[in-house]
């Protein structure tokens, strides 16, 4: 797995940010993806890839360039299949390990880490809700190197859990119509699982080929943060797939780890953003910042207030990462033995992690500039991407509700709700 070379930018073929132009599908892999076999191997590969992804992260953010070569290397590495169960050929790594993998990638480039989020969550849904035939087919796709995108949320619905996209069944086919927004990763995917409701308001994940007639994907994502996640729109017009590729979404009707799995990946991304920002702050202070005139010190790194502030950031980061580990262990316990109690505990522990990772991501990306000084704001460094990414990504679901559900659990013995944002 060699270092990805930075190629000259060809703006005539590269999908641009905030564009309404349809984007053609990416080619499917020519060779099968690597199969990871252990937790240790997953961590090792994540660290190797992170070193490669870091190099071009600032440029990709500045120019609005999607990480095309990076995503190909990422999915071919086998990391997109690490939560495929061992019974179906995957590594079946622990969710503690999975969270660490995502945090490692996010520290290098949080947009790349976020593109993986929905794919890994969908792997979990396949395991929880799929038939044996669906598991064999869908997990086979994953292990071959195919990437799942995301067509879940809608821009104009009443709330994030309300859907207008519909699926109808016509003989042996499922027919889907609708439009989705915040479709992170769909543009770079090979298969787009579309959330749709049938006439009885039952939810399905309909697995649609990215190249299917009636699928239009645009990169009309205009956020100031997470700029290169390909989180634009998907329009679905009379798209037909075999009925066998419609998977009922039942995981929230009973106690399962579906919600905590989705949430721990989000929390891991924020932890990674924080670590990347702190690492960049330390490097900048050591090499480019000047000591404040009142300190009487020769270097910025000798300033006692800067030293204390870095210590505070590291302590808060380590606390957040420790809670991520605890949450991962609780999810693993809930996966092994899903009961109301084990799933509630996994949900609460993950919510606790989400609170601390949100707080350290916002704090660290802000403190970077305070500690590194004015020159750290120069455009050539593009260090503001850390703050923009943290501010945008931590809005995924309101952390203020985490405090409420955690408090209700401990004070009033009320379990948190079961959905993808809890």
From TrEMBL:
Enzyme Commission code(s) on record: 1.14.14.21
Key words of the record: Flavoprotein, FMN, Monooxygenase, Nucleotide-binding, Oxidoreductase, Plasmid
Single GO biological process annotation from the record: L-leucine catabolic process
GO molecular function, one term: 3-methylbutanoyl-CoA dehydrogenase activity
Catalyzed reactions per annotation: dibenzothiophene + 2 FMNH2 + 2 O2 = dibenzothiophene 5,5-dioxide + 2 FMN + 2 H2O + 2 H(+); dibenzothiophene 5-oxide + FMNH2 + O2 = dibenzothiophene 5,5-dioxide + FMN + H2O + H(+); dibenzothiophene + FMNH2 + O2 = dibenzothiophene 5-oxide + FMN + H2O + H(+)
Acyl-CoA oxidase/dehydrogenase middle domain: residues covered: 159-239
InterPro entries (UniProt xref): Acyl-CoA_DH_C, Acyl-CoA_Oxase/DH_mid-dom, Acyl-CoA_Oxase/DH_mid-dom_sf, AcylCo_DH-like_C, AcylCoA_DH/ox_N, AcylCoA_DH/ox_N_sf, AcylCoA_DH/oxidase_NM_dom_sf, S04_starv_induced_SfnB
All residue ranges annotated as the Acyl-CoA dehydrogenase C-terminal domain in the record: 265-397
One Gene Ontology CC term in the entry: cytoplasm
Protein location: Cytoplasm
Family: Belongs to the DszC flavin monooxygenase family.
NCBIfam families named in the record: sulfur_SfnB
Record's protein name: Dibenzothiophene monooxygenase
Native species: Shinella sumterensis
């Amino acid at each position: 797995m060699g270092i990805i070379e930075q190629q000259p930018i060809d703006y005539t073929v590269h999908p641009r940010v905030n564009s309404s132009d349809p984007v053609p599908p990416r080619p499917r892999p020519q060779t099968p993806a690597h199969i990871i076999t252990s937790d240790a191997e997953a961590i090792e590969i994540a660290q190797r890839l992170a070193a490669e992804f870091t190099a071009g992260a600032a440029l990709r953010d500045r120019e609005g360039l999607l990480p095309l070569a990076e995503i190909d290397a990422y999915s071919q590495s086998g990391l997109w299949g690490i939560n495929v169960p061992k019974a179906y050929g995957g590594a079946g790594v622990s969710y503690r390990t999975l969270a660490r993998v995502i945090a490692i990638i996010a520290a290098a480039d949080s947009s790349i880490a976020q593109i993986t989020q929905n794919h890994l969550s969908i792997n979990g849904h396949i395991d929880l809700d799929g038939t044996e035939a669906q598991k064999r087919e869908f997990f086979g796709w994953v292990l071959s190197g195919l990437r799942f995108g995301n067509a879940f949320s809608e821009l104009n619905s009443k709330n994030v859990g309300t859907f207008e996209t519909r699926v109808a069944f016509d003989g042996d086919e499922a027919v889907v119509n609708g439009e989705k927004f915040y479709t992170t990763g769909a543009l770079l995917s090979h298969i787009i699982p579309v959330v749709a409701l049938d006439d009885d308001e039952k939810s399905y994940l309909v697995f649609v080929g990215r190249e299917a007639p009636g699928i239009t994907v645009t990169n009309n994502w205009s956020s100031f943060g997470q700029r290169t996640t390909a989180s634009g729109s998907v329009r679905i017009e009379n798209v037909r797939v075999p009925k066998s590729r419609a998977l009922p979404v039942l995981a929230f009707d009973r106690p399962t780890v579906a919600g905590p799995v989705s949430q721990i990946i989000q929390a891991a991304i924020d932890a990674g953003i924080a670590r990347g920002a702190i690492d960049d702050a330390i490097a900048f202070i050591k090499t480019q910042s000047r000591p404040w005139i009142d300190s009487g010190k020769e270097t910025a790194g000798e300033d006692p207030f800067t030293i204390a502030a870095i210590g505070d950031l590291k302590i808060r980061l380590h606390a957040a990462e420790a809670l991520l580990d605890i949450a991962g262990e609780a999810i693993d316990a809930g996966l092994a033995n899903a009961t109301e109690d084990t799933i509630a505990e996994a949900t609460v522990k993950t919510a606790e992690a989400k609170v601390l990772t949100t707080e350290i991501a916002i704090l660290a990306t802000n403190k970077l500039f305070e500690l590194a000084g004015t020159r750290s704001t120069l455009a050539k460094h593009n260090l503001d991407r850390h703050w923009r990414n943290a501010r945008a990504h931590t809005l995924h679901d309101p952390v203020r509700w985490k405090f409420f559900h955690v408090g209700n659990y401990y004070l009033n013995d009320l379990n948190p709700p079961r959905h993808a944002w809890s």
